[in-house]
Amino acid sequence: MKHLSIILKFLSIMGAFGVFTIAMAFYATGQLSSTARSYDNLINHDNRASYLVARGNRAMMTAEASIANLLIAVTPAGKKKAEQELETAHHQLDDFYTQAASLSSSQAATINAVRADADQLLNQTCELGIKQGAAATEGTTVLTSQATYLSDCQPAFRPIVARAFGAAIALSHQTDAEAVTLKADAAHSVMLTFAAILLGLAVVLTGGFFAIRTWLVTPLNALQGAMMKLSGGDLTANVAGSDRRDEVGSMARAVQVFKDAGIEKIRLEGEATQARQEAEVLRQRGEAERETAAKQLAFVVESLAAGLEKLAAGALTFRLSQSFAPEYERLRSDFNAAMEKLQDTMKIITANTAAIRAGTGEISVAADDLSRRTEQQAASLEQTAAALDQITATVRRTAEGASHAREVVGTAQADAERSGEVVREAVAAMSGIEASSQQIGNIIGVIDEIAFQTNLLALNAGVEAARAGDAGRGFAVVASEVRALAQRSADAAKEIKALISTSTQQVGSGVDLVGQTGKALQRIVTQIGEINSVVVQIAASAQEQATGLHQVNVAVNQMDQVTQQNAAMVEQSTAASHALAQETQDLSVLIAKFQIGEATTEQPARHVSPRPVPRPTPPARAATPKAATAGGRKLEIVSNTAEKWEDF
């Protein structure tokens, strides 16, 4: 990794974080899929079985009501309709209970037993009452069929319905228990995912921290220590990292050139000292030769002093253009070569510094863009959480309203059923009145016949009295009175018979009207039962939606918290990148003090357009302050030693 550039090192860390993010996404998707499959099994099996049992119970009550309608129907069309309703309810009962038993293994035996008992009840127990009711056309046969129904058939419905309702309640309790278990499993999966994300983030951030410290901070600190020793005159300092092929290696090679130049300076000073000693020895050979050598040496020393002064001032373009004496010409060429190498080295350092500054600029721009997008994402998640809170409250209110509506519909259904019972009792009472009226009519007919016979007897008695003459005159008067009384009795009997006939017709009309009222109430009871089932389904669905929305709301709130933490870490990363850019700028200012010829000491930073970042890369919270502190110490050291370049 030490041969890669700084940008590639940062990109490798970001790539590792991206791989971790993708792995966490796959893991979370798997957990959500498992939970969804469990919920789907709950809805399609246990919940569906409970619904089918409820439908079967309603079909059984419909069958009971159809039998009652068959018994009270007075027309063939009404009886046929009741028989069709009974047959339809019987088929629905078998279908619903069979499907429910196939979906629920825990209640299959109970449901099958209820279905078998219901079939036996409709096919055997109630068969006689149903046949009598279908064939009954007169009051006596109707009453007989109703008595058979009330004694044999109707009491057998209650235990079967109670067992069916018990199975439905058991299925409901089982569904609730499984829903609680699934909710706990979902919460456990969310906690495991959250813990895995936190652990992975800690591992990635810790690895990134140690990687940056190993790849960048430690080599720069070592290079800084070597430069401090060189600036203090310690030419034995080891310049590490010159074998690297990244920006740090370029800087290390540049520092190595400084070290070589210092060693060369010491060598030159030693040679100058040796030259002075030789000049002192040769001074005895002649004054002229000594003066000439002294002038040459003075010129060399002055030239070298001027060159070193220019070097201390940072003028790396300075060269010794005037020729030295032959024995000093090599010194001039070595000095010029050292200046040339130093100038080339500073050009490389300047170019590398510009590249580093451009790279830090790109990192700063990318970090700013990442921080801005992370803040936007956090705001969006916060708005989503608020909207989900409102939706959850609305669904909860809907569930409460549906529960209240279910209670109201249940009360209305009970009232309608009681009204149906009252109407059936009224029909039975009016049927009895009609039968009694017919019997009274028969009795009046007998009275009418008796009056007619009495009238005939009185007429015969009158004829016999007339034949008897004066002796039968009194008997004739009595016979005439008896005949008159018989005639009045016959007239009264006819009037009573007419009144009873009218009353019978009115009672029949009343029976028809009450029967129609009973049918209407029965239809109302059936429709209210259907409304009750629909309201129950709406209440259950609203409750399930409220529970699901609450879980989604909890997950979104957790994501919001994680995003807020990511935003804070991205801001720390942005601050660290800006600090690195500032340190690079300060290094450019220091390098700008050197005059290196046609190469410019500053290069404009490349324009970096914001590019989308697929996943945020939160920086280590502890690494940012430490990096900033190290950068501050580095700047302080450079500023304190800026004046020492002259001595070097």
UniProtKB/TrEMBL annotation:
<dbReference type="GO" id="GO:0007165">
    <property type="term" value="P:signal transduction"/>
</dbReference>
<comment type="similarity">
    <text>Belongs to the methyl-accepting chemotaxis (MCP) protein family.</text>
</comment>
<feature type="transmembrane region" description="Helical">
    <location>
        <begin position="190"/>
        <end position="212"/>
    </location>
</feature>
<feature type="domain" description="Methyl-accepting transducer">
    <location>
        <begin position="352"/>
        <end position="581"/>
    </location>
</feature>
<keyword id="KW-0812">Transmembrane</keyword>
<dbReference type="InterPro" id="IPR003660">
    <property type="entry name" value="HAMP_dom"/>
</dbReference>
<dbReference type="Pfam" id="PF00015">
    <property type="entry name" value="MCPsignal"/>
</dbReference>
<feature type="compositionally biased region" description="Low complexity">
    <location>
        <begin position="620"/>
        <end position="630"/>
    </location>
</feature>
<feature type="domain" description="HAMP">
    <location>
        <begin position="214"/>
        <end position="267"/>
    </location>
</feature>
<feature type="region of interest" description="Disordered">
    <location>
        <begin position="600"/>
        <end position="633"/>
    </location>
</feature>
<dbReference type="GO" id="GO:0006935">
    <property type="term" value="P:chemotaxis"/>
</dbReference>
<dbReference type="InterPro" id="IPR004089">
    <property type="entry name" value="MCPsignal_dom"/>
</dbReference>
<keyword id="KW-1133">Transmembrane helix</keyword>
<dbReference type="Pfam" id="PF00672">
    <property type="entry name" value="HAMP"/>
</dbReference>
<keyword id="KW-0807">Transducer</keyword>
<protein>
    <submittedName>
        <fullName>Methyl-accepting chemotaxis protein</fullName>
    </submittedName>
</protein>
<dbReference type="GO" id="GO:0016020">
    <property type="term" value="C:membrane"/>
</dbReference>
<keyword id="KW-0472">Membrane</keyword>
<keyword id="KW-0145">Chemotaxis</keyword>
<feature type="domain" description="HAMP">
    <location>
        <begin position="295"/>
        <end position="347"/>
    </location>
</feature>
<dbReference type="InterPro" id="IPR051310">
    <property type="entry name" value="MCP_chemotaxis"/>
</dbReference>
<feature type="transmembrane region" description="Helical">
    <location>
        <begin position="6"/>
        <end position="28"/>
    </location>
</feature>
